[in-house]
Specification:
Elements (H helix, E strand, L loop, with lengths): L1 H21 L15 E9 L2 E10 L2 E5 L3 E5 L14 H12 L3 E6 L4 E7 L2 E2 L4 E7 L2 E2 L14 E8 L1
Parallel strand pairs: 1-10
Antiparallel strand pairs: 1-2, 3-4, 5-6, 6-7, 8-9, 8-10
Protein name: DUF4430 domain-containing protein
InterPro entries: TAT_signal (IPR006311), Transcobalamin-like_C (IPR027954)
Keywords: Signal
Length: 161
């Protein structure tokens, strides 16, 4: 009886091993919290109307601006997320590159993030700033720190003081 039990255990372990070996491998990009590309709707609202509106496929990546230089913008900024994720500023950068418009931002090392200064040559200046919101709510962290999900509605809105 002892041998039968041991044989059954070994057969069950072998069957489980074969099942696991033949199971499809989950890709890292398909798990939550990874830098899988997502499609979001991006709106840029200037003081005189909409400057851009469209669907953008984005993921976190390095961003380069004329004023701020090149820095990562992948949600790991400031320790906000444990791994790279899509972010609002990365979405703005992707839209600008794909749809051929400009934006600029200052890099603040103390925040580990950009401050968006101008989009399509519309500057916040001394009396306004570019507010970032996702699904109608201002982000509580910077645009390189906030994690986007597929279907999110991202808005950069020129906001007067």
């Amino acid at each position: 009886m002892h041998r039968t039990s041991a044989r059954r255990t070994m057969m069950a372990a072998t069957a489980l091993g074969l099942a696991l070996a033949s199971a499809p491998v989950a890709h890292a990009d398909s798990t939550p919290g990874t830098n899988a590309p997502v499609k979001v709707t991006l709106t840029v609202q200037g003081p005189d109307g909409v400057l851009f509106k469209g669907k953008i496929r984005t993921r976190g990546h390095e961003v380069t601006t004329a004023t701020g230089g090149t820095h990562r913008c992948d949600g790991t900024n400031g320790g906000a997320n444990p791994s790279a994720v899509p972010t609002p500023t990365a979405a703005l950068d992707d839209a600008a590159r794909k749809r051929h418009f400009t934006w600029d931002g200052t890099w603040y090392a103390s925040f580990d993030d950009y401050s968006v200064d101008a989009i399509k040559n519309v500057s916040g200046g001394g009396s306004a700033y570019w507010n970032i919101s996702v699904n109608g709510t201002s982000t509580p962290v910077g645009g390189c720190q906030f994690k986007l999900n597929a279907g999110d509605k991202v808005a950069f809105t020129w906001t007067a003081f």
